[in-house]
Amino acid sequence: MDLVCPAGNLPSLKAAVDNGANAVYFGFRDDTNARHFAGLNFGPAKMAEGVRYARQHGVKVFLALNTYPQPNGWSRWQTAVDQAADLVVDAMIAADIGVLDYASNRYPELNLHLSVQGSATNYEALRFYRERFGIRRAVLPRVLSLSQIEHVVSNSSVEVEVFGFGSLCVMVEGRCILSSYATGLSPNTFGACSPASHVEWRETEEGLQTRLGGVLIETYRKGENAGYPTLCKGRFCVAGNTFHAIEEPTSLNTLELLPDLQKAGVSAIKIEGRQRSPVYVAQVTRVWRAALDACRRDPENYRPQANWMAELGKVSEGTQTTLGAYSRPWQ
Amino acid sequence: MSNTPRLSLGPILYYWSRDDVLEFYRQIADSPVDIVYLGETVCSKRTLMRTDDWFRLAELLTAAGKEVVLSTLALLEAESELKRLRRLCGNAQYLVEANDMGAVQLMRGRPFVAGHSVNIYNERTLKLLAEEGLKRWVFPLELSAGTLADMQSARPAGIETEVFVYGRLPLAYSARCFTARAHNLPKDDCQYRCLDYPDGLILSAQDDTRFLSLNGIQTQSAQTCNLILELDPMRELGVDVVRISPQSRRSDAVIDIFHRCIEGEMEAEEGMRRLERLMPVGACNGYWHGEAGMLATQNQARALSGE
């Protein structure tokens, strides 16, 4: 299984390459990709430099162009596809049918991956993208159990990539509009979930309150660690109980499932976190490289090492981790 | 290209008892809706209505003069779900609403409707799906009137456009069941708790603002999307069908109000005033205006205060 690592900027890209990534993925500095955050991503010069650096070290480069253009923004996405083809990236990761159609017609030699934002959770959906656009690989949404992933792989001619580590989307990606419901901006339309421009912090007698689009997401009492107010990770009140009604602030960590994912025929493991620091990228890439190598050498006796788990725990959201939907009890 | 839109009733998004479902559609048979979408679109564990039951209902409603469309699951994971989907897609009688690309794949080459969870955000996507057999598409919930105008001007010939105009908005789908979670139950042993919440289970912020409605694996808005004041712009934009989403109480009244406003028998402002009493947590219309979906614009506020 290949290790696909996030690169939000050039130092992160180098950190991923230096610590054992097989591929890095990145995006342009605008809303054409799903990590459209201030100060993140690549202009043309840095991108060319990043591609060069990865190539010199035998690491592949994937360009994420995985948001959904509307008619008045279409030309921006078209230009981005043209630039991706010029850069001769190893793959372009896209979600929108229009973008995939343009790319596959204009640049038949361009290798296409279906983004997780394409919401393909079954092999019939994958067949559509394979037959219409010739996609080579699909990134599966973080909603399938291990046996469902195995079933998709065994019924599909498309390579399957799954998320191994990082922030956890609880909802089917590409079909969640909670963020735009509260702020007007969503991953699909803007390339960001719960955007920082709509976050407010307020000290009150009850504690530190954080709001998104005016909606109270969380109140931190004295001594509690305050986290970023991602809409689905707040504490809400349902039927008289106040709790993390959707999901806790937690990270996905599938390190212990590696032999199962390998056996299921998964082609690549994706690490989330283009918005994170180069230190995060270096640490996470190093641990996952070691784990993947150990699993390939001897899957029968593979066990996640305590120091790997500790390293990953340090960089996890809310410093706790979960197996997410891979494990039925989570569902 | 001003025209009079037809009225559709979306699929029931909640889990109601079999008797309640049958009684609901007995009323619908006599209502002025033109198109009825039937079937389970949220959770494959909801089987009080079997596939055969839905087919029987389809016959009944067709006999009552309705155009029936069989609607399908939005989140397809298990082979058993694909199997049921194949049966619906293989039927020779009724149009099918695809709510996932898996269903689109099965419908290729035959006429189908694309539901709002199929992301058709630009004209290139619309054209490609038209080549595959798309007959009607439901405009994505989070997009604005401005985008609809752009899409309509580039719409391929013969493609109908449907807009979700009334109901709680389906905002997200998950592997996790939030209704079960709220009862501290795992999904595999959910005890069908969603039967207790015929309009979803309200989720509030810690300041008691009602925000979302939990409907099993689907998360909805607590507010009811209400675009009754936008029927005139929709006419201008050539919208062919407007969709009302069922609620457990007084869907018949909602349908009647929309019908009368469409037919010009009632002013939209009067329709809005009457609907105000029928929405459990008030209205929202932000997406249509290019804003946060939960917002209700001043336009509506004016109508409500009677100015």
Shape field of chain B: globular
Shape estimate of chain A: globular
How widely separated are the two ends of chain A?
26 Å
By CATH, the superfamily of chain B comes out as Aldolase class I
Summarize the amount of helix of chain B as a percent range: 25-40%
Number of domains of chain B: 1
Order of helices and strands of chain A: EHEHEHEHEHEHEHHEEEEEEHEHHE
How many strand elements of chain A? 15
Cα end-to-end separation of chain B? 31 Å
Largest sheet properties of chain B: 8 strands, parallel, barrel
Chain pair forming the biggest interface: A-B, 71 and 71 residues
Output the strand order for the largest sheet of chain B: 1-2-3-4-5-6-7-11
The value of Rg of chain A in angstroms is: 19 Å
What is the mean predicted local confidence, pLDDT of chain B? 95
Please give the domain count of chain A.
Answer: 2
Task: Based on the model shown, name its key terms.
heterodimer; A: 331 residues; alpha/beta; TIM Barrel; eight-stranded parallel β-barrel; three-stranded antiparallel β-sheet; 11 helices; 20% strand; B: 307 residues; eight-stranded parallel barrel; disordered C terminus
How are the SSEs placed, and which strands pair?
The complex is a heterodimer of chains A (331) and B (307).
Chain A: E1 2-6, H1 10-18, E2 23-26, H2 44-56, E3 60-65, H3 74-87, E4 91-94, H4 97-106, E5 112-114, H5 123-133, E6 137-139, H6 146-154, E7 159-167, H7 178-183, H8 187-190, E8 199-204, E9 207-212, E10 215-220, E11 236-238, E12 241-243, E13 251-253, H9 258-264, E14 268-271, H10 278-297, H11 306-314, E15 321-322
Parallel strand pairs in A: 1-2, 1-14, 2-3, 3-4, 4-5, 5-6, 6-7, 7-14, 13-15
Antiparallel strand pairs in A: 7-13, 8-9, 9-10, 11-12
Chain B: E1 6-9, H1 18-29, E2 35-38, H2 51-63, E3 67-71, H3 79-90, E4 95-98, H4 101-107, E5 112-114, H5 123-132, E6 134-138, H6 145-153, E7 160-173, H7 178-182, E8 201-204, E9 210-215, E10 218-226, H8 231-236, E11 241-244, H9 251-262, H10 268-276, E12 283-284, H11 298-305
Parallel strand pairs in B: 1-2, 1-11, 2-3, 3-4, 4-5, 5-6, 6-7, 7-11, 10-12
Antiparallel strand pairs in B: 7-10, 8-9, 9-10
